[in-house]
Amino acid sequence: MKVLFVCTGNVCRSPIAEGLLYSLLGRRFGDGAPSVASAGTAGWEGDGAQPHSVSAAAERGIDLSGHVARRLEAGAIQEATDRE
């Protein structure tokens, strides 16, 4: 199973959602956890997460400091919807 969060720029909402779910699934399933990713419809490719998003996530123990925004592509949608 793969989860893909999508927002506009992939620098605020979707990185937080990705980080939170990744953390929760990792604690629950360990190495068997589903993969989690995020992208933006108008992705600000190469940008980091916005500082307020990094701070908000850090308050919940999630590190977004290494996040790199990416644009949503058809391949990412296909990967997230393929049944294994």
Structure explained in plain terms:
The chain is α+β, with helices and mostly antiparallel strands. The protein has a single domain (2-81), classed as 3-Layer(aba) Sandwich (Rossmann fold), CATH 3.40.50.2300. 39% of the residues lie in helices and 14% in strands. The chain has a two-stranded parallel ribbon. The longest helix has 17 residues, at 13-29.
Task: Write out key terms for the chains shown.
single chain, 84 residues, alpha+beta, two-stranded parallel sheet
Q: Please give the oligomerization state of what you see.
A: single chain
Please write the string of helix (H) and strand (E) elements.
EHEHH
| CA-CA gap between termini | 7 Å
Shape annotation: flat
Number of domains: 1
**What CATH architecture would you give?**
3-Layer(aba) Sandwich
Largest sheet, if any?
2 strands, parallel
Kindly report the name of the CATH homologous superfamily: Response regulator
Number of helices: 3
Which fold name fills CATH's third level, the topology?
Answer: Rossmann fold
Q: Give the CATH level 1 class.
A: Alpha Beta
What is the topology?
Blueprint lengths: L1 E6 L5 H17 L5 E6 L10 H8 L15 H8 L3
Parallel strand pairs: 1-2
Helix pairs in contact: 1-2
Briefly characterize the structure:
The protein has 84 residues and is α+β, with helices and mostly antiparallel strands. It has helices at 13-29, 51-58, 74-81; strands at residues 2-7, 35-40.
